Amino acid sequence: MIIEKGFVVAIDYTLKDEKGNVWETSEGDEPWIYLHGFGGIIPGLEPELTGKQQGDTFSMTLQPEQAYGVYDKDLANKVPRSAFADIDNLEQGLRLSAQTDDGETHSVTVTEITDDTVTVDANHPMAGQKVVVDVIVKEVRPATPEELEHGHAHVDGQCH
Ligand SMILES: [Zn+2]
């Protein structure tokens, strides 16, 4: 079966930075399952997968804007250090959950700590970076009518 819009695709993938450091991989874990053509995957990867089939492998380098976006310095904010008084393991690189004014939760990274302030950065950790991605196509199947209606893949028949 050939990957095209409306097919559910399972891939194994490894994301690396340009130096080859592995940032995320599905190796040793479940493959990533998504509905092709509905934006459920890194934007730059989707066109490359079109026309591939089970067993195909490829590797490509994505520009930041095709991957996790360009770096937005406005998303890095200095917060008074006192706001972190109850966090014992405060250190550079720590990932925290933050709540915005409209109640949405998102992840931030601690990027700088001074005596008075802590800089938290809401950019994706891979924002502004080229991403090297290795892909193995594990499975391709037609989506069910329900999946097409929802606009995402269901795993083991479960919506989540
Ligand atoms: Zn669903």
TrEMBL record:
<dbReference type="GO" id="GO:0005737">
    <property type="term" value="C:cytoplasm"/>
</dbReference>
<protein>
    <recommendedName>
        <fullName>Peptidyl-prolyl cis-trans isomerase</fullName>
        <ecNumber>5.2.1.8</ecNumber>
    </recommendedName>
</protein>
<dbReference type="Pfam" id="PF00254">
    <property type="entry name" value="FKBP_C"/>
</dbReference>
<keyword id="KW-0413">Isomerase</keyword>
<comment type="similarity">
    <text>Belongs to the FKBP-type PPIase family.</text>
</comment>
<feature type="domain" description="PPIase FKBP-type">
    <location>
        <begin position="6"/>
        <end position="83"/>
    </location>
</feature>
<keyword id="KW-0963">Cytoplasm</keyword>
<dbReference type="InterPro" id="IPR001179">
    <property type="entry name" value="PPIase_FKBP_dom"/>
</dbReference>
<dbReference type="GO" id="GO:0042026">
    <property type="term" value="P:protein refolding"/>
</dbReference>
<dbReference type="InterPro" id="IPR010916">
    <property type="entry name" value="TonB_box_CS"/>
</dbReference>
<dbReference type="InterPro" id="IPR046357">
    <property type="entry name" value="PPIase_dom_sf"/>
</dbReference>
<keyword id="KW-0697">Rotamase</keyword>
<keyword id="KW-0143">Chaperone</keyword>
<dbReference type="GO" id="GO:0003755">
    <property type="term" value="F:peptidyl-prolyl cis-trans isomerase activity"/>
</dbReference>
<comment type="function">
    <text>Also involved in hydrogenase metallocenter assembly, probably by participating in the nickel insertion step. This function in hydrogenase biosynthesis requires chaperone activity and the presence of the metal-binding domain, but not PPIase activity.</text>
</comment>
